[in-house]
Amino acid sequence: xxxxxxxxxxxxRREALEAYLALSPWLFGFVVFTIIPIAVSIFLSFTxxxxxxxxxxxxxxxxxxxxxxxxxxxxxLKVTGLFVLISLPLKLVFGLALALLLNNRLPGMNFFRTxxxxxxVISGVAVSLMWMWLLQPDTGVVNTLLxxxxxRGPNWFWDKDWALPSxxxxxxxxxxGSAIIxxxxxxxxxxQLYEAAEIDGAGRWGRFLRITIPLLTPxxxxxxxxxxxxxxKVFTEAFVITQGGPLRSTYFYxxxxxxxxxxxxxxxxxxxxxxxxxxxxxxxTIFINYTSxxxxxxxxx
Amino acid sequence: xxxxxxxxxxxxFALILVIPVGGITLAQDVVTIEWWTVNSEEYxxxxxxxxxxxxxxxxxxxxxxxxxxxxxxxxxRMTTTLGAGSGAPDVAFFWDNNWFPQALDLTxxxxxxxxxxxxxxxxxxxxxxxxxxDKIVGLPLGVGANFVMYNKDxxxxxxxxxxxxxxxxxxxxxxxxxxxxxxxxxxGGDRPRGPFRAIWRNYGAFPYSDDSTxxxxxxNSDAAVAAYTWLWDLVASGxxxxxxxxxxxxxxxxxxxxxxxxxxxxxxxxxxxxxxxAVESGxxxxxxxxxxxxxxxxxxxxxxxxxxxxxxxxxxxxxxxWLSYWVGPEGQQFLMENGQFFPSLPTVLETHPDADxxxxxxxxxxxxxxxxxEWVNAHPCNSTVLRAAVDAWDLINLGEIExxxxxxxLDSLVEPAQAALDECVGRLGG
Lengths: 301, 430
Hints:
heterodimer, A: mainly alpha, MetI-like fold, 2 domains, 14 helices, flat, B: alpha/beta, D-Maltodextrin-Binding Protein, domain 2, 20 helices, 12 strands, globular
């Protein structure tokens, strides 16, 4: 690096210095608020730390406990994995469907785009409380409407079989944010491609499958990564509504992490849990990225 | 003449030099104490600011700087600040026992202070909130307790006699059933908010041994089975709202006060703050302790908040001065007279503006019982073990098991609860 610096002419050196100077606020923030906390968290994951007393080095004990002696770890991992499997496809499909609807050229469309985007910017706690009311078994709006059509609604958040799907349903309600990103992707697809396909006799479904979807794959790829990470981090709904119950059916990984860190004062173990989740997300992202070569098409290709 | 003028000039010049220096010296003598507190019904910001102003006016050498934090985020803020090892307040609520290692040992201060002594406070609160590992880590501020509030009008309407203070758990269910009216969507009584609280303790049930070594024979003891079976009977009676009803229709996390005020719950386990709300609402109510088991010692869920001086304070003397004022007779009297606050000092509590009212007298009587917190505060792994054994609670509340399966369910939870206890004791001690 030093040799490269020496080989640079004075103008290039000055430009490089100016670039680093301009980057320095971000670099400072990145080091202080990201790199150092990650490094400290890695260190703490090998310690026992009750927060108010100094950490004690215990080697890999936290990890051994996690994999061999902690049923709550496996339960929270199972519940979170299930939630990702249920909610992720739903969010991707409904987000795209909503974007397709919002892509129509109809009067007042901007109003509807705004309305559907609003859930994405409302506080998670407020949304949780609203859904608690909506899904209340006896007096909630949803079950009251179901009653009108002769269907006895479930106990939703208060039923061990329905609690997880209820939280997934809540997450689908917030797809307005991803729909806006899909919409941007849809509007980037050149109209002449559709015109040419129409002249060639392609129907609506054919145009959707052979033009829209392939040209939207970069956006789908982005949404897949972002929504996957978001799903793994699900916390507020369980914290506010179910506290992980009933019968731990919504005992998400992040809730367990929070309880260990701030209720159980087990910060070393919580750090190990956090690191493991990071590794899971990293591995999943790498896997999706690897497969993307086969299904993501860029305009330049 | 000239010499005289020169002398006066010199004196004036010297005064000009000395006065500011003297002023600076005086300013430096004022010690600033950082105080973190919360804003709640019991501890209103307005009243606490007035108390600080009064203290600052009476103590020119100390300036208390108040920081009012939201109650919901106080725990996280204190935990992280104490963990960071710097920037913690000189004086604050230390309401989590896990913070006690960072509280200043006040033993020497208390011994030297003629105005504060342990006998002034309710014994139970002193033992559970002030003393930790043979040290005095703080002073207990305020009192609260759970008791059963009953709606006299509903009892009269249904022709059911009012409960007596010595009523039993079986009588509780029978009374709740008699008061329930499905047509009016009214339930007779609520269900406990968690296991191993007052009623479990009244049955003589503990989640694990006192020395924090054994779960077998405790979590699944005859007493615990009896307590869980009582819960099963209550749930099966249909006389109590479901957890979903309580969650939605009872908007306060501390108890179903809304359902009680609306007349949809004839008996509810509430606290002294709810009493004031009920008084304001004009509800005709009475108070009794949670039901007992004949022949067994009686317990109550009661609480007080520990107020402490941070061990890392640079001004321990001044911090103690403020603490003893805030939590001493003067401060608690002020908080009681100006807000919805019940003091932890019996002599001050006796002067409560409503001391002659039945509900305050009933509250006094509830405070005479032994406290669940005595055991809980001495056993830091209590909540960890209960978390591992939560299935029994959930299964009964959801109606997922039969009455004769209660014992087997508790037996099946012994192993995970024991594992949780062993792990926790290794970390937090017994």
